Amino acid sequence: MRARIYQPAKSAMQSGTGKTRVWLLEVAPSADRVIDPLMGWPGNADMNTQVRLRFDTKDAAISYAKEKGIEYVVIDPKKRKPIIRQGGYGENFATARRTVWTH
Predict the structure, then answer these.
(1) Distance from CA of residue 4 to its chain's centroid?
(2) Region 8-34: what's the mean pLDDT?
């Protein structure tokens, strides 16, 4: 059994960083998906692919995988650079602006 340990990226519908601080351990499928001949739906007999475990830290996920004898791969997240402006967003609406506000 092989698994990957990663931090999920934020969804496109999020502006904040909620639900991105946890680490997930997700088991990779051991077999290819099979198309059901009657309905045409893809399926798999491996129930481990439906398991997704959440951990607070990367070290906790790694220690769990080692304890259970699971072969794992760690995928480190790409950190985004913070956007910091001199006056911030509130500067757009300041009453003491010295420059003309333009669109």
Answers:
(1) 12
(2) 82
Give, in order, the Cα–Cα distances in Å from 65 to each of 11, 31, 44, 49, 89. Answer: 27, 20, 23, 15, 44
Q: In terms of Cα–Cα distance, which of 16, 21, 50, 20 is closest to 33?
A: 50
> Rounded to whole angstroms, what are the CA distances from 45 to 4, 34, 37, 53, 69?
20, 9, 15, 20, 22
Beta strands of the chain (E only): which ranges?
2-6, 23-27, 34-35, 42-43, 52-55, 71-75
Question: Token pair for residue 39?
Answer: 């309905």
Two structure tokens written together for 78: 């790409």
Its pTM stands at 0.68
The secondary structure of residue 47, as a DSSP letter, is G
Give Cα 103 to chain centroid, integer Å.
35
The arithmetic mean of pLDDT across residues 54-60, rounded, is 96
Does residue 101 have a pLDDT over 80? no
